[in-house]
Each structure stands twice: as structure tokens, then as C-alpha cells.
Amino acid sequence: MPDLSIIIVNYKTPRLILDCLASVYTHTSGITFEIIIVDNQSEDDSRDQVMAYYADVRWFDMGYNAGFARANNLGIQHATGRNVLLLNSDTLLIDNVLARCVRVLDEQPDVAAVGAHQLGADGSLRPNLYTTFNQMRRAFYILPAGQRSEDWLSRQLPDPQFADPAQVEWLSGAFLMTRPSTIAKAGGLDESFFMYGEDVEWGYRLGKQGRLLLLPDARFIHLEYGSSDNSKHVVTHINRFRSQIQVSQLLWVRKQYGVGAYLLLMAHYELLVPVVFAGKMLINLKNRKSPFLELDNQRMFARQVGIFGRFFWKTIFNRSGLYKV
């Protein structure tokens, strides 16, 4: 039995996986491991490219683009290691972090899962990554920019305080190590999630089995957006969400906090649509312009809210099925 099963989901990213695996083999020592790759119907030569260099990889085909949760669950089902690591294809290891994580799980049975700090491609620490549930929930509310709004939200949705500064409420699915025995108790990833949000929801259930630690001496490079195009989304104060991400996050809010919390967010977005249009029109009139000029940002926000609305009844009743935009 290997010490660790490393599960990587592939969707048309063979080059990234080759670089990722090269970093795993270069930097990992002192433990035994297996590599499991689950392919989400890439319909390319990903398997041939990877297997040409790493013939011992265990490769599984989903048969359709199942998203992150379902593909990882299949990998977990086939894992034979004492521990399991979810690892994104667009990641690179820079030292023997896997052995350190295995050691923590071996030596601290009260720890349910461990993760590592994310670095950018330039090696700098990625800032402002959420580690508590309420950090993320606060970002869902679109209020006037400024410290006053931030302070008010922090009072309404405060963060927990832990004795151990390394303890967090959830860990990024880009690098998350746990035990099969812990998964057996907590359950696998929720397969209603297509992409995003599934690791947050899983963190809630994993956290019931023990502490979740973001290890201070553990780091990895996360290139990000390996199998998705983020370049087309221009972030503004009101258009801060990508549709798939927020549909998934709204599903998480419904599952973890109930119908009321979900309805509050949806009402917030719906009521904001006329507000952002009226606000921009008033600014245009003040500047002696046509009120109907430069409303692209507002129209985009209205379209986003419309996408959220397509999943409204399904989310309200927490129906099973793939929440894919």
C-alpha cells in the first residue's frame, strides 16, 4: 500500500500535467505514492502524451465532462494509498511538501486534512485567499466600497478564532490531503457541484471529523486557470463574479446555511439590478450625458443575475444534478 494516492483531474491540460508530475517526482522523497489521473472527456491525446513519460500512471476516463467533484470522487474510489491528495493539474511542487503533509496526518490523528500555501508563478505568496467561510460570504455582498462597509459586514459575519494559527475552516481543492478513513466518515465531494465551491462545502464536512490545517511551512505554485479561460472576464465592483463560480457558491450557501441565507443573497442581487442602472444613469445626467450611455457594466451584471436565476428553483429545493452553467 503506498503512503499517498495523488489524484489529478485532466481536461485538455496534458502539458500542465507533465510539468506537475515532473515536479512531484523531482521533489518527493521518503514516501511511496501512486498517480491517478481522471480525464473529463478531453477528446485529445492527453493520455498518450502523459503515458509516454509516466507509464505507471493509473488513468481513468469519466466518459463525459463531469467537473471537479465527480472526477475526484472516481479517483478516490480507485485510490489504494493510506492518504489521498487532490492536486490540480496547474500546480508545481517546489520541495518535499508531500512527505511533510503525510507526516502531519500520521502524527496528529485529530487532524482531518492538511493543505499548503499557494504561490504565484513568480514564487510570491498569493494574497487574499479565503480560509474561513465568512470571508467568502462577505465577498458575496455588493455594498458601497469603503472601510465602513467592510467593518459592518465583518460584524455581521465574523470569523472564528482558533488557538492554532494554522487552523482554517476549509482548504483549497487545488492541494488538499486527507485520509480515506476520514472521507469514509465525511462523505466524498458533493457531486452536484460542477466546478468551484465543492471544496468549501467539503471543508465543512471534513471539519466535523477533525481540525483542518494550512501548514505554515508548506507551499506550492498554483498557476491557476489551467483548463479555463479567465481572460474574458473583466472584474469590476459589481461584476466581481464569474457565472460558474457564483452559481456553485450560491449552491454551497444553500446547502450549508439554508434557504434563508440563499434567498437573502438572491434578493440582494435582484434588488441591485435597478439600483446600479439608476445610479449610472444619474451619474450620466450629472455629467450632461445621455442617461443610456456606458451601461455595459450594468447590463453584464443583469445578465449574471439572470444566470443565477436559472438555477433558483433547483437550488431552493436542493435538487440533485449537475449545476453546470
Written description of the protein model:
The two termini are 39 Å apart. Helix 9 (243-257) packs across helix 10 (259-286). It is built from twelve helices and nine strands. The chain is 44% helix and 16% strand. Strands 1, 2, 3, 4, 5, 6, 7, 8 and 9 form a nine-stranded mixed β-sheet that branches. The protein is globular, with a radius of gyration of 21 Å. The chain has two domains: 4-222, Spore Coat Polysaccharide Biosynthesis Protein SpsA, Chain A (Alpha-Beta Complex), CATH 3.90.550.10; 243-316. By secondary structure, it is α/β, with parallel strands linked by helices. Residues 5-132 form the Glycosyltransferase 2-like domain. Pfam families: Glycos_transf_2. The chain crosses the membrane at residues 259-279. GO terms for molecular function: transferase activity.
Describe the secondary-structure layout.
Layout: E1 4-10, H1 14-27, E2 33-39, H2 46-53, E3 58-61, H3 67-78, E4 83-87, E5 91-93, H4 97-107, E6 111-119, H5 133-139, H6 147-156, E7 167-168, E8 175-178, H7 180-186, H8 198-207, E9 211-222, H9 243-257, H10 259-286, H11 296-310, H12 312-316
What key phrases describe this protein's structure?
325 residues; alpha/beta; Spore Coat Polysaccharide Biosynthesis Protein SpsA, Chain A; 2 domains; nine-stranded mixed beta sheet; 12 helices; 44% helix
